[in-house]
């Protein structure tokens, strides 16, 4: 087995786990927020038809798109939902990781000592 | 009205109205009529964006206007009793005026009539620009290099390659603005602030036909607006990863045979990029927040013996928007980041450097922006902002052993050889006042002033003060010098401009910009060293709504632009440099044999700042509601190049053999070096003469660069599940002053006439043909989004050269001399296809994407750099022939990512 293949084998589980975690973790939470009456397949198609790419990433940018979902993104009660809670956890994790990196990965020049 | 105009002119003249440049907002205006075309006064018009709603009532001419709008998508709704309400969507771009004509029909209807989006074409502006919207940024397989710098995104715009914008100096010539903050290095003009592309709301890449409020560039303007919070909470969580297991190799046996030092493919061995963003309201309709935290880190195995190059960059961005009243807005934003880099090259080149021969880099930086906007009704508004930038950039060698070059073997040893410490800072105050006036047509005046104070400190020294030359491993000579230099740039700029609508279809864009630039040297008692003449930049443009329906515009423009304030042009006219010392090495001890006393370059009192004249014509047509086509012809004539010469120098001719033709090549030898050795002088060098000892003219400095281009851009915004942008650019950038860096304002090219032999030709960043194609489609049912970017460009020009010793020309150092006209040859045509495939899940307001980016899909191995020494050069002990590759494009690499947004 060559070096490249070994590296791939080494990293693939991590990548797959991460991808799975990202997929699996938010989906049930999001699904739980959806209206029970909505049929997932139909809803998928319907929202996809409406969604411009930009609006999909930042739905709040487009007034018309803001009406598309049932979750109220205009209220802080959003953070009491599962999706909102996950968002807060991810923010805390991401911010914490960045703060940790700011001190831990710092290359400090002797010229600043 | 006359009184207001007079007052504004007076304020401008007195400098009492500091005014802004590089606007960050746009305008929506329109006229409401009935079905017969009669104007409708008193119509209630409501504008709704993500930060709430505002209302206006049409005036006696049926006109409404919303000023100082953040870029983004808006909905305009018009209502009048007895008429059916109507609504229309519009995308507001940076500095754009969106015209929305609305026609109300009589009737009573509960539902609102929704009409097509407003035209994306501004028929009142003579400027040609391209914007990279979130649609493209979010979906395209953006490859912005190892620094992941969004400033590199300008290379995705038509007409810009290798960071050279429309013939301008690569990096140095571009204005780089983030939320209105000038982020360029005040010494050399390059990008010093790095950030991820997904914090961008909109990036406007322009500079062609730019009005007077835009200044301080001779390349392109990159005006970047970051995201803001709104009434709805929004979030983005993204993670990207790659490693060497996801990379291919594209080093062919043939390329390895030509240059064994190519070694291995240039790939990322590891990339971990995590980004979280959240924004929303503190107080609905009043106070909004948004922030981003990103931890970007990669490891690469670069070409050559180096095994590792790394960067870890934690980055923070934030923005607070306070809508104090319907007419008062305060915006504050900041960025802090620190890019920590290992594996940078020092004196030992890529072909030889081992990991311990490299340099570590410590470089934190911060930018800040406080902006206040005041709207005075529908016809006037004021923008004032205070912005700043702070950062340092320290390079330390891993191994502090002095560098040694062996004259017998051509091999290098020791460490990277030097340290370099750079500190930078800038504060800027900009204020602008805009006024719409109905008198002899419609006028859109804008007056402004900018005050800039920036500083630069740089320290350089060789390790132990010297570098060595050896014979077969035995040190024979040592040389060294150092510097610690300071500079302060001072700039005050004033501008006035008007978009004057003459009749209903013709708009004249008139303006003038004045830049008063000074350079102050703290090392010389704060003496004002650089005093170029006042830079006067007139701008004259015409925009003609050809069809009268706002869908076709013909433009013509002529204008003069000047470069921003930087230290490079006058750096060598400041003190802080040490003597240049030479030693003989005897039994390991240094015995001084040469001392060239430190000297300060003279500098002309009467000189002009680097600038250019530009004229362009363009035709832009809205083809469908989503598609537009623009055809532009542009010509730029660069002038006022600044460089150094030796006015007292006298030259004699000397012939060397041209190995390409085996015929004599006439060069110039410094005849009176001993008496003029410190007689360097900085000025506008075009036309400077090189004399022989009798005073006869031997040669004349011909400092020129011209750029011309035909650009065809077809844009289709996202609808019906697909979007795309196709562009073709034919261009020609030729002259004698390189556009690959800072040669327009510094360097030794014009000091010695031999340098200019065969010096005219295509510029280093010249690409005759350029095709850029961005396209994306969302496949129904499977909800997979496929997006591709193709870039095909002519290979870069090059020419054969030889090294001529200092003793032959009686000058310091070795000269590289072209032995055929500059740019006689070109590297092969460059093709690359990048692909992004994304599986999209949408639930309620949430969007989840799992994506894979493939850079260099077909694993092409086109040469991107070439060995130019004729007939060959020794690289890592191998003889590499002229024309062989010294770098090739990056190998195919897959990056995996996941993102969730709402």
What does this structure look like?
The complex is a heterodimer of chains A (113) and B (902). Chain A has helices at 3-24, 26-33, 40-50, 53-57, 63-66, 82-104. Chain A has six helices and no strands. Chain A has a domain at 36-69. The relative contact order of chain A is 0.08. Chain A is mainly alpha-helical. The longest helix of chain A has 23 residues, at 82-104. Chain B folds into two domains: 2-118, Immunoglobulin-like (Sandwich); 150-901, Maltoporin, Chain A (Beta Barrel), CATH 2.40.170. Chain B has a 22-stranded antiparallel β-barrel. Chain B has a six-stranded mixed β-sheet with strand order 25-24-28-29-35-36, with no helix packed on it. A five-stranded mixed β-sheet of chain B has the order 3-2-5-6-9, with no helix packed on it. Chain B starts with a helix and ends with a strand. The relative contact order of chain B is 0.11. Residues 1-21 of chain B have low confidence and may be disordered. Chains A and B meet through helix 1, helix 2, helix 3, helix 4 and helix 5 of A and strand 5, helix 2, strand 17, strand 18 and strand 19 of B.
């Amino acid at each position: 087995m060559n070096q490249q293949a070994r590296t791939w084998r080494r990293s693939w589980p991590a990548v797959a786990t991460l991808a799975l975690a990202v997929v699996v973790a938010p989906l049930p939470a999001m699904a739980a927020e959806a209206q029970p009456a909505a049929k997932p397949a139909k809803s998928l198609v319907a929202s996809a038809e409406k969604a411009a790419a930009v609006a999909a990433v930042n739905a709040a940018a487009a007034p018309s798109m803001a009406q598309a979902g049932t979750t109220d993104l205009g209220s802080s009660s959003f953070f009491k939902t599962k999706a909102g809670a996950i968002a807060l956890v991810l923010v805390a994790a991401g911010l914490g990781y960045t703060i940790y990196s700011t001190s831990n990965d710092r290359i400090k020049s002797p010229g600043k000592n | 009205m006359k009184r207001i105009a007079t007052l504004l002119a007076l304020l401008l003249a007195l400098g009492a109205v500091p005014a802004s440049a590089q606007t960050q907002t746009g305008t929506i205006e329109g006229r409401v009529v009935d079905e017969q075309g009669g104007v409708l006064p008193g119509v209630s018009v409501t504008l709704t964006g993500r930060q709430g709603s505002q209302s206006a009532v049409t005036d006696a001419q049926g006109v409404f206007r919303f000023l100082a709008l953040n870029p983004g998508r808006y909905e305009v709704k018009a209502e009048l009793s007895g008429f059916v309400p109507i609504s229309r969507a519009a995308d507001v771009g940076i500095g754009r005026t969106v015209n929305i004509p609305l026609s109300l029909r009589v009737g009573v209807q509960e539902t609102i009539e929704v009409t097509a989006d407003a035209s994306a074409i501004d028929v009142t502006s003579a400027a040609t620009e391209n914007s990279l919207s979130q649609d493209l940024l979010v979906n395209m397989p953006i490859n912005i290099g190892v620094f992941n710098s969004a400033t590199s995104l300008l290379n995705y715009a038509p007409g810009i390659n290798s960071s050279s914008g429309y013939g301008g100096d690569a990096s140095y010539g571009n204005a780089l603005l983030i939320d209105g903050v000038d982020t360029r290095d005040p010494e050399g003009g390059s990008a010093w602030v790095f950030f991820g592309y997904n914090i961008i709301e909109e990036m406007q890449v322009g500079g062609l036909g730019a009005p007077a409020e835009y200044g301080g560039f001779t390349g392109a303007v990159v005006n970047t607006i970051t995201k803001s919070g709104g009434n709805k909470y929004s979030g983005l969580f993204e993670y990207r990863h790659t490693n060497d297991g996801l990379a291919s190799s594209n080093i062919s046996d043939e390329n390895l045979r030509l240059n064994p030092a190519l070694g291995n493919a240039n790939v990322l061995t590891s990339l971990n990029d995590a980004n979280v963003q959240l924004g929303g309201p503190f107080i609905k309709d009043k106070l909004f927040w948004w922030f981003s935290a990103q931890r970007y880190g990669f490891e690469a195995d670069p070409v050559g013996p180096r095994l590792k190059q790394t960067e870890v960059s934690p980055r923070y961005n934030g923005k607070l928007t306070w809508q104090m009243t319907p007419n008062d807005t305060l915006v504050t934003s900041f960025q802090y980041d620190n890019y920590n880099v290992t594996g940078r090259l020092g004196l030992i080149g890529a072909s030889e450097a081992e990991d311990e021969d490299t340099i570590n880099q410590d470089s934190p930086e911060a930018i800040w922006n406080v902006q206040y906007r005041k709207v005075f009704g529908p016809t006037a508004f004021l923008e004032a902002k205070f912005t700043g930038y702070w950062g340092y950039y320290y390079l330390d060698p891993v191994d502090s052993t002095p560098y040694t070059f062996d004259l017998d073997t051509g091999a290098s040893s020791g460490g990277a050889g030097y340290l370099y410490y750079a500190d930078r800072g800038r504060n800027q105050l900009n204020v602008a006042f805009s006024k719409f006036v109905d008198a002899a047509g419609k006028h859109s005046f804008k007056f402004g002033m900018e005050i800039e104070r920036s500083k630069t400190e740089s320290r350089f020294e060789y390790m132990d003060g010297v570098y060595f030359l050896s014979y077969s491993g035995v040190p024979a000579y040592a040389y060294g010098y150092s510097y610690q230099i300071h500079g302060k740039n001072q700039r005050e700029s004033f501008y006035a401009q008007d978009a004057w609508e003459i009749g209903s279809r013709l708009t004249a864009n008139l303006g003038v910009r004045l830049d008063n630039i000074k350079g102050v040297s703290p090392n010389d008692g704060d003496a004002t060293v650089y005093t170029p003449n006042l830079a006067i930049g007139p701008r004259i443009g015409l925009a003609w709504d050809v069809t009268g329906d706002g869908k076709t515009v013909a433009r013509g423009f002529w204008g003069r632009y000047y470069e921003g304030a930087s230290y490079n042009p006058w750096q060598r006219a400041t003190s802080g440099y040490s003597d240049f010392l030479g030693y003989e090495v005897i039994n390991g001890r240094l015995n001084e044999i040469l001392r060239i006393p430190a000297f300060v370059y003279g500098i002309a009192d009467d000189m002009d700042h680097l600038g250019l004249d530009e004229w362009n014509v363009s035709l832009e047509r809205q083809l469908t509601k989503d598609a537009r086509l623009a055809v532009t012809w542009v010509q730029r004539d660069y002038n006022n190049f600044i460089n150094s010469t030796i006015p007292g120098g006298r030259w004699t001719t000397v012939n060397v053999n041209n190995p390409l033709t085996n015929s004599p090549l006439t060069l110039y030898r410094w005849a009176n070096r001993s008496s003029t050795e410190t007689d360097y002088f900085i000025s506008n060098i075009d036309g400077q003469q090189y004399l022989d000892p009798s005073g006869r003219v031997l040669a004349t400095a011909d400092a020129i660069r011209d750029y011309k281009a035909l650009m065809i851009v077809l844009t289709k915004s996202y609808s019906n599940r697909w979007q795309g942008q196709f562009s073709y650019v034919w261009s020609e950038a030729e002259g004698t002053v390189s556009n690959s860096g800072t040669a327009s304002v510094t360097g030794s090219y014009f000091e010695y006439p031999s340098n200019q032999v065969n010096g005219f030709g295509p510029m280093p960043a010249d690409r005759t043909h350029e095709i850029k194609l961005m396209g994306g489609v969302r496949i129904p049912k499977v909800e997979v989004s496929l997006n591709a970017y193709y870039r095909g460009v002519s290979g870069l020009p090059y020419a054969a050269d030889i090294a001529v010793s200092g003793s032959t020309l009686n000058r310091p150092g070795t000269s590289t001399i072209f032995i055929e006209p500059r740019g006689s040859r070109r590297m092969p045509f460059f093709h690359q296809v990048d692909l992004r495939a994304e599986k999209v899940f949408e639930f309620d307001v949430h969007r989840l994407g799992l994506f894979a980016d493939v850079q260099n899909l077909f694993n092409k191995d086109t040469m991107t750099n070439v060995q130019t020494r004729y007939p060959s050069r020794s690289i890592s002990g191998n003889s590499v022939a002229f024309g062989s590759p010294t770098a090739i494009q990056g190998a195919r690499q897959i990056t995996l990512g996941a993102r969730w947004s709402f």
